[in-house]
Amino acid sequence: MGKGAYLIGLDIGSSSVKLVELKEKKGHPVLHHLGVVHLAPETIVEGTIIDSYDLINAIKHLISAHHIKNRKVAISVSGTPVIVKRLTLGYMTDKELAETIDWEVERYLPFDLSEVNIDYHIIRSDEEKNQLEVLIAAVKKETLEEYLSVVAEAGLKVRVVDVDAFAMENAYLFSGQREKNQTVILANIGASLMNLNIVSEGETMFTRDIALGGINFTKEIQKQIGVTYEEAEKLKTGGELDPAQEIIVNNVLETAKESLSSEILKSINFYNSTFEGNEVKEIVLSGGSALMNGIAEYIQQSLNIPTSIINPFEDVDINSKTVDIDLMEKTAPMFTVAFGLALRREKEEK
Ligand SMILES: Nc1ncnc2c1ncn2[C@@H]1O[C@H](COP(=O)(O)OP(=O)(O)OP(=O)(O)O)[C@@H](O)[C@H]1O
Ligand SMILES: [Mg+2]
């Protein structure tokens, strides 16, 4: 992948900010720090930073509580301000592509070209077949600037801005234990979004962010039981339940699993009907909502596709003096995006 020191992976999610720090030892990453700080539900709403003061303080707290010295970070964005698309074009040189990419991308954008920043990566270039496959990512400038300014105000230097779906893929592909030729769907189930990414032979085929996640389930519990959001969140994530509450929480979570499962199926069907290629052979879950009891079993049964939950740290060494092992063991899948970001380096070779 790259050269140079690892960046700090900082995943700014709508329910919490997650931090992962890796350090290199004998050419291999070692997990040095793992941290999370929760955000009030009104801090980030639908990907928009509402309370930047609160968010800046949360990030500062995370950095100082873990005695992080490195100031260089990788962050990521997701949701409606981000458009990811795989394009097949006629062959052209790198220079020609750089000159025409804006025009090629424009027709896929729900925004004006002047409102976005565009980045791209050449997947395959074949002059003989007159083919060029490119993966493009466009991010709304306004969103990007909000995130950059918050992170800068927290005293950090942004070196990489990634997309959640790609960071999850990076984390997935890092492990030597994956079947790299296979087609898989990765699903990062967070608080306000589920990021989906269909990966085939180590390349992104298709991504989609769906506005469905833990916040929806907590709000439903809040409504049905008549408690505060914070209380409902506790009841959902392992708090003590009386028998009546237990029935309600279980029902809400069953419905949640059904909705998530049906969204994953929709994307698989879309992929199968749009792309010629291999069938999706596996579903890999990550994100905090993947900690929901029995979710992998539910999805596997209802879609009849092998489903597992990722442990992003399975192939790295852990510094047990600096890492909160309990936090890691209980919530590892929640750190998948942060881990994918933490694998990025200051100087990268493509
Ligand atoms: N044990 C659990 N059971 C069910 N849900 C859980 C559990 N633990 C955490 N969650 C849920 O996971 C969500 C947080 O996941 P995550 O940290 O991946 O989201 P995020 O990155 O903050 O949000 P997003 O990326 O959607 O903006 C919360 O909604 C939380 O309620
Ligand atoms: Mg997230």
Description:
By secondary structure, the chain is α/β, with parallel strands linked by helices. The protein folds into two domains: about 1-80 and about 140-175 and about 315-350, ATPase, nucleotide binding domain (Nucleotidyltransferase, domain 5), CATH 3.30.420; about 180-310, ATPase, nucleotide binding domain (Nucleotidyltransferase, domain 5), CATH 3.30.420.40. Helices cover about 35% and strands about 30% of the residues. The chain has ten helices and 18 strands. The chain has helices at about 50-65, 95-105, 140-155, 165-175, 215-225, 230-235, 245-275, 295-305, 325-330, 335-340, and strands at about 1-5, 10, 15-25, 30-40, 45, 50, 70-75, 80-90, 115-125, 130-140, 155-165, 185-190, 195-200, 205-210, 280-285, 305-310, 315-320, 345-350. Strands 11-7-2-3-4-17 form a six-stranded mixed beta sheet. Strands 14-13-12-15-16 form a five-stranded mixed beta sheet, with helices on both faces. Strands 8-10-9 form a three-stranded antiparallel beta sheet. Strand 12 (about 185-190) and strand 13 form a beta hairpin. The mean pLDDT is about 95. The structure holds adenosine-5'-triphosphate (ATP) and magnesium ion.
Concise overview:
The chain has 350 residues and is α/β, with parallel strands linked by helices. 36% of the residues lie in helices and 32% in strands.
